[in-house]
Amino acid sequence: MGKQQDVFSDILKDDISEASERVVALTFDDGPKIGKTEALLKMLKEKNVQATFFLIGAQAEAEPELVKRMCIEGHQIGMHTYTHVDLGSMNEAEQRKEIEDTQKVLENISGKTQFLLRPPFGRINDTLEAWVPCPMILWSIDTRDWTGRDGGEIVLDVCEHIKDGDIILMHDISENGLEAAAGIIDELKWMGYTFLTIDQLFELKKIPLEDGKVYHNAR
Ligand code: NI
After folding, report:
1. Which terminus of the chain is less hemmed in, N or C, by CB atoms within 10 Å?
2. pTM of the complete model
3. d(CA 150, CA 130)
């Protein structure tokens, strides 16, 4: 009896550690976009999921209420440059303007001072790595939701490839993105995954986020 209990408690322990090894982050780029982001926020709230939004500075400046709502509803906000530029082809002065202008806008709206950067197109260069005052977050699962792919196909594809610590790239401006995001949440929850913001994910994994470094996943 004692032995059998041990076996059961071992199984239980495995289950618990396995559960904590199924954490991923949903990230949405290129917003906020009036007429699109609201529906996404509503869906995330209904499903009780917190995501990370990498915002275009000029759009955030134009739609501060949407950005405030993201913060109030527990989402993390980060920078995606001021005008969605290729930082990899810029010099330091040009990069600084794009990033610092975005930083100022997000600071004014949220009251926060530290923001992660997602470089548009995943493009960086050595110049950027040398001075950028924050970590850079890329992705490990690209849904390519902006191409007009079928939502169901995106969901299947993500479920097939998902691994613990993955960072999923989506866009809150794509037509079929909302359907795909809802499907991904439902299916991955069913598979035992928990959704965290980028900060929460890296904290849980005890991976320190360092300025100027690039991260594709939390593994
Ligand atoms: Ni983008």
Report:
1. N
2. 0.90
3. 40
